[in-house]
C-alpha cells in the first residue's frame, strides 16, 4: 500500500498545482478513484490487484472521454466530484443525516455540475484544487478539524498557483 500512497501524493500535488492544464489527468484520476472505491465496496474480499485493475480501467476510459468530449465530461466529472466530496464531507464531520447517501451524492453532484457549467476554467481550478488537497490530507490521517483546516489552506494554495497561470492566459 506504500506505493499507492506515493502515487496518491504525486497525483494530489499534480492536481493542486497543474490540475487545470492536466484536466484529462484529473478526470482520469477521478475515474480511477471512483472505480477503485466502487470495487472495494462492491467486490467483497477482492485482491488489491483487482481493485487497481478496475480503477485503472475506469481511469483510462474517463481520461479518453475527457480528451474527446471535453466540456461534457468535465460537467460529469464535476457531478461525480461534487457527489463524492459531499459524501466525504458528511462522513468527515460525522454529521448524522437522515438523508440517504445517494441523495447527498446527487445534491452535491448537481451543485458542482452547475458550478462547472457557469465558471468552466475557475471551476476546474477549484475542483482540481479540492481533489488535490483532499488526496494529500487523506494521507495524513489527521483529526476532522485539522483535516478541514489543511484542506482549506491547500485549496487556497492551489487557487493561487493555478489562478496566476489562468490570469496570464
What is the CA-CA span between the terminal residues?
A: 39 Å
- Principal-axes shape call: globular
- Strand count: 0
Q: Fraction of residues in helices?
A: over 70%
Order of helices and strands: HHHHHHH
- How many alpha or pi helices? 7
Quick gist of this model?
This protein is mostly helical and 169 residues long. The chain has helices spanning 2-18, 23-42, 48-68, 70-92, 101-118, 120-140, 144-168. It has one domain.
3D architecture notes:
With 169 residues, this protein is mostly helical. The chain has one domain. The protein has seven helices and no strands. The radius of gyration is 15 Å and the shape is globular.
Key structural traits:
mainly alpha, 86% helix, globular
Question: What's the SSE blueprint?
Answer:
Elements: H1 2-18, H2 23-42, H3 48-68, H4 70-92, H5 101-118, H6 120-140, H7 144-168
Helix pairs in contact: 1-6, 1-7, 2-3, 2-4, 3-4, 4-5, 4-6, 5-6, 6-7
Amino acid at each position: 500500500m506504500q506505493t499507492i500512497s506515493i502515487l496518491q501524493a504525486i497525483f494530489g500535488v499534480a492536481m493542486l498545482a497543474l490540475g487545470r492544464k492536466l484536466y484529462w489527468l484529473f478526470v482520469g484520476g477521478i475515474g480511477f478513484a471512483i472505480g477503485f472505491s466502487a470495487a472495494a465496496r462492491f467486490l467483497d474480499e477482492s485482491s488489491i490487484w483487482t481493485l487497481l485493475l478496475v480503477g485503472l480501467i475506469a481511469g483510462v476510459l474517463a481520461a479518453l472521454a475527457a480528451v474527446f468530449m471535453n466540456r461534457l465530461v468535465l460537467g460529469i466529472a464535476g457531478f461525480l466530484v461534487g457527489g463524492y466530496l459531499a459524501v466525504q464531507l458528511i462522513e468527515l464531520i460525522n454529521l448524522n443525516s437522515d438523508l440517504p447517501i445517494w441523495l447527498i451524492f446527487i445534491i452535491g453532484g448537481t451543485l458542482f455540475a452547475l458550478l462547472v457549467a457557469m465558471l468552466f476554467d475557475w471551476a476546474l481550478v477549484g475542483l482540481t484544487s479540492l481533489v488535490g488537497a483532499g488526496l494529500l490530507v487523506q494521507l495524513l490521517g489527521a483529526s476532522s478539524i485539522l483535516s478541514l483546516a489543511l484542506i482549506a489552506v491547500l485549496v487556497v494554495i492551489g487557487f493561487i498557483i493555478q489562478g496566476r497561470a489562468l490570469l496570464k492566459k
